[in-house]
Amino acid sequence: MIDLKSTQQQTRYRILLIGDDCEDVYQYGTVDRISPEAPVPVFKFLHEERRPGMAGNVRRNLESLGCEVNYIHSETSTKTRLVDRRSNQHIVRIDNDERCTAITFETQIPSIYDAIVVSDYDKGTVSYELIEELIQTGIPTFIDTKKIDLARMQGAWVKINELEYCKIKTECTGLIVTQGSKGARAVHHDLELAAPSVEVADVTGAGDTFLAALTVEWLSKRDLSEAMQYAIKAASITVQHFGVYAPTIEEII
After folding, report:
1. The Cα angle at residue 183 between residues 170 and 230, in degrees rounded to 5
2. How far is Cα 214 from Cα 34, in angstroms, rounded to an integer?
3. Per-residue pLDDT tens over the stretch 151-163
4. Nearest 5 degrees, angle CA 81-CA 44-CA 30?
5. Are strands 175-178 and 184-186 parallel, antiparallel or unpaired?
6. Per-residue pLDDT tens for 68-126?
């Protein structure tokens, strides 16, 4: 049970972020030969980098855009990527996914927050009931989810990708579908925006950037079209970098 009364702080945009936490581990090395034991590459380890993933990456993006974030999560998963240093290509990814404990609140969520952001990879941290409770606060709520009953998220802005859109059973009126290099569309708002043409290095974390930028610009302008344009531009910067990346306000402008 989480007590939110002790988390109240002063800032321009106060964000309550709830979601599934992950640590992204990048192990860089070289491959010079094939194993004599099996037809697989021999990976010679050079160095390692660790970065926040999933909702942790959303937090990083929100903070890069000037927000103060109260981040609540449960267990932390780990995704380890073996990367060829010469080509920056992934050789393999090893997932150690934790089944997370559902977040619940023992006190009423305070109205100090400018927005609530949910980054739900469906690992167990976020339940439908929690989402409904968050929306009922009346605080603007922005959700990225892998859940399929989106009618239960009516009243929030819900961002999913094209693959996830094909799997949903119900929709809400605040549904936004990202379409990669084609941009994004707000399904029930007759709004479809193109993405700039950029050289893509890695799409990892682009959705996290989109969610964070959409939230911040909507709070600033209260205009969906401008918020989506800003989010698309931010995500187009992220995909030009290898691994998760959090663009700054200056980069986006």
Report:
1. 100
2. 46
3. 999 999 999 999 9
4. 75
5. antiparallel
6. 999 999 999 999 999 999 888 889 999 999 889 999 998 889 899 999 999 999 999 99
